């Protein structure tokens, strides 16, 4: 495995990122931060991961929010 010291998301799985954001904001708060329907209409970790893995722009927004929220 390659070391990526400049990548703050290295070693984090998408599931961990989404789970921590849901714990921090809740589904309603997450939808307010990022207007993605999978956070508003019958949200679940599983359905969100499925959407985010197929949709790069949405994943980029989620990762950016994670960094803004949890990065030192």
Summarize the structure.
This protein has 72 residues and is an all-alpha fold.
Characterise the protein shown here.
The protein is an all-alpha fold. Helices cover 62% and strands 0% of the residues. The chain has helices spanning 14-33, 45-54, 56-70. It is globular, with a radius of gyration of 12 Å.
Give the CA-based shape: globular
**Number of E strands:** 0
Give the SSE order as H and E letters: HHH
Structural class: mainly alpha
Uncertain runs with pLDDT below 50, 5 residues or more? none
Q: Tell me the fraction of residues in β-strands, as a range.
A: under 5%
Helix content: 55-70%
Report the C-alpha radius of gyration, rounded.
12 Å
The major β-sheet equals: none
Count of separate DSSP helical elements = 3
The N- and C-terminal alpha carbons lie at a distance of 25 Å
Please describe the structure with a list of short key phrases separated by commas or semicolons.
single chain; 72 residues; mainly alpha; 3 helices; globular
Helices and strands in order, then pairings?
Layout: H1 14-33, H2 45-54, H3 56-70
């Amino acid at each position: 495995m390659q070391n990526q010291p400049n990548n703050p998301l290295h070693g984090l799985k998408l599931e961990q990122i989404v789970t921590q954001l849901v714990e921090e904001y809740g589904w309603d708060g997450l939808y307010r931060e990022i207007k993605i329907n999978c956070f508003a209409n019958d949200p679940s970790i599983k359905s969100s991961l499925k959407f985010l893995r197929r949709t790069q722009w949405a994943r980029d927004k989620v990762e950016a929010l994670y960094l803004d929220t949890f990065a030192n």
